Amino acid sequence: MARSSCLGGGLAASGVPTLMYAGTADPWHDPMRDFAHAQGIEFFSIADADHGGAIRRPDEVLPRVLPFLLSRPLQVSGAG
Predict the structure, then answer these.
(1) Alpha-carbon distance 21 to 13, whole Å?
(2) pTM of the full structure
(3) Domain total for the chain?
(4) pLDDT higher than 90, residue 14
C-alpha cells in the first residue's frame, strides 16, 4: 500500500469493515499486511500464492471471508 498511499488513506477512512488478504508470494503481500495492521484492518495470508493465485484458492479464502461477512450487520444506505 505504500506505493498507493492515497488509495490506502481512503480505504482506512471509509469506515467500511474491511478484510484484506494476499498470497505470500505476492510482491504486495508485505505492504498490504503492514498497512492492514497499522489501520486495524483484518488481514490473512495464503501460503505460497502469487498475486493471481490467492483468489483462485477458495478452499482457503472462503473459510476466512464468510465468517467475516456474517459477523457484520447488513446496512443499507440511501433507501427511502
Answers:
(1) 19
(2) 0.78
(3) 1
(4) no
